[in-house]
Amino acid sequence: MSSAKATSLPAFNHKHLLGIEGLTEAEITQILDLADQYVDQNRQTDKKKNLLNGLTQINLFYENSTRTLMSFELAGKRLGADVINMSTSSSSIKKGETLLDTASTLNAMHPDLLVVRHGSSGAVKLLSRKVDCAVLNAGDGKHEHPTQALLDALTIRRRKGRLARLTVAICGDVLHSRVARSNIHLLNIMGTRVRVIGPPTLLPAGVEKMGVEVYHDMIQGLKGCDIIMMLRLQTERMHGAYFPTISEYFSLYGLDAEKLSHAKEDALILHPGPMNRGVEIDAAVADDLAHSAIQEQVEMGVAVRMACLDLLTRSKRETS
Amino acid sequence: MSKFTLYKNARLLDPASGLDLKGELLTEDNKILAFGKTVDAPKNAVSIDCQGHCLCPGFIDMRVFIGIPGADYKDTIANTGDAAAAGGVTTVCVQPNTDPIIDSIAHIEYLALRAKDALVNFIAMPAATKQLEGKEMTEIGLMSNAGYKTFTDCSSTIDNAAIMNRILKYAASFDALIIQHLSEANLSKNGCMNAGALATRMGLSGIPTAAETIILERDVRLLKSTNCRYHASQITCNDSIEVISRAKSDGLKITAGVAVPHLSLNEYAIEDYKTFTKLSPPLRSEEDRLSIIKALKEGIIDVIVSGHDPQDPESKRVPYEQAEAGVIGLETLLNVSLEMYHNGSLELLDILAKITCNPAKIMGLESGILKEGAPADLCLFDLNTPYCIDPEKMISITKNTPFDGRPVQGRVLITVVGGKSVYKYND
């Protein structure tokens, strides 16, 4: 029955999901609409579907991750796929096998879906050329993290009813953030007004050419904003001084109640997690349910990933 | 008995004298004997009909990396020589970062021994500092006195200003030439492409042009007090061109080079993280590339190099950040450079000067010129017939060229080294 439903739905015109760049407004809407349905399904007692019965999904994670990995695993399992996780700590990756050798090895096992996270920008695309199955980018270096941007968009759309003509401020460590890049692409495609706020040292060169307004003063930048996207300060990617001290950073760029008061009254706060409380976000603000949609993002994450897995296997399920 | 060869019906091109003449050239053994509209050739001379194609001095490539010794899976000396011959390059200047590093007379002689059967001339460019570490000077005096007067740390920058100052002072007394790689260590750390909007979009760490210009400006300041001969290995941006131009008009003994990829490609060649476009210094913006062409035309940049740097597939079939920098180039030195002639940017003789007489003059070589008594190192090439670059047809063992499939005009037909034909194009 589920496959009959799949054939009645429009196909998705991409073999892989490697980034938001290159998607159209209609395609993003298609993913979000489908994800909306999965949100409802996930709230029922029986969450399981047999849509991906017989299909194998491998989650190949070169970087540590808890929530994204779990989210993809849950998404695959709820759709009925056989899901295997492979991470750096427990595999031949540690033994020096190259990315492409790992790719051919996995490919020989005939997976249908490969979910990949890698520390180098472009690595997932490189891998996608060497395998026959659909590849989902779960984050590559500082390049893209498409499902994060999609789940952010779904969260916003459900709360605000639309994406177009809203003003979104992306705050903090944009330089090291793939989440920021994917979000900038997505929001621009959807007609949202995008601002980035951060110290000059944490904003990448030429970011204004990506279609954003640049602010170094957080209060100025937050004025009139509907959505505040806080980014995690990625100290593990920093080599050298980008700002003087954590306390100066928090004082100037940490989101607290005072700074929040300059945004719109009903402004929504998003954070891709994990949060550094007291570094980029004040604990009280993070837990303020009137503004914070951070828990909701996690819920939307599973639904969005189910939608992506569904869409990327659609042509395969139809032909089989 | 002397062996004579007569090259008839040639378009003789000599950038050193500005000669561009339909005529003939006669070689005796390893020297050029005579050339002109017609020359009197002995009866036993072997005659070669050039069919109106261009005959010019063989090319001198000032920046070539070889895998021998230390990395013979990348290439061999014989293979480098074959590839050079196929590209019309008759002299390759070997960068010292072999294993062991070329930093003494013994290493220079070892290379000479290994290269004696190669098809083209191999000249060692010894390191300026021991182990290319930028800390201690090599035996610049002894090597200079032995006739090796060009020193470079090739892909490493001599970062310490005090050491650079001493090297320049010391080298000046031997009239030696110091070639600097322009890349400030801290600004280029972790970087793998040009800094800017494209790097931001691709999520790659950028190297700003300032990394190049800062070192150049510092060195120019040191040249003012040391008066040493200095060559900026590879210029990639407009800011550096301004510094070179000013230093030249101040009368400093400074020259500059550019690598073929930087004059023909910009950062967008990286496309989908193509590791065959990874270079040090990186490909720059289109504005910078156009400035390079202008500087070549105005003579601010003196030399074009291939930067030939074979990398095995394992070093390139990895994510962009982790890939080794470097592309092969011996077989694309002429044809890609000639794009500047075919699109009207530069005169033919001006382009050829950058790969013949200019490097010869900087390095004190007798070749690179059509002159009676000069070495018979020659290149005959077809200026016009178009074709597409096919890496599979290249002689280099590794195929890491960024010019795969590029349509070009300019094909090497015959290469002559020391009077001997070492390459002949076979369709």
Summary tags:
heterodimer, A: 320 residues, alpha/beta, 5-stranded parallel β-sheet, 4-stranded parallel β-sheet, globular, disordered N terminus, B: 427 residues, Urease, subunit C, domain 1, TIM Barrel, 2 domains, 8-stranded mixed β-sheet, 15 helices, 18 strands, 29% helix
Brief synopsis:
With 320 residues, chain A is of the alpha/beta class.
Q: Can you tell me about this structure?
A:
The complex is a heterodimer of chains A (320) and B (427). Chain A is α/β, with parallel strands linked by helices. In chain A, 39% of the residues lie in helices and 14% in strands. In chain A, the strands form 2 sheets. In chain A, strands 7-6-5-8-9 form a 5-stranded parallel β-sheet. Chain A has a 4-stranded parallel β-sheet with strand order 2-1-3-4. In chain A, helix 7 (178-189) links the parallel strand 5 (167-171) and strand 6 (193-197). Residues 1-7 of chain A have low confidence and may be disordered. Chain B is globular. Chain B is 29% helix and 24% strand. Chain B is α/β, with parallel strands linked by helices and 427 residues long. The A-B interface holds A 21, 98-100, 118, 120-123, 125-126, 140-144, 178, 181, 204-207, 209-210, 239 and B 189-190, 195-206, 208, 272-273, 314, 317-322.
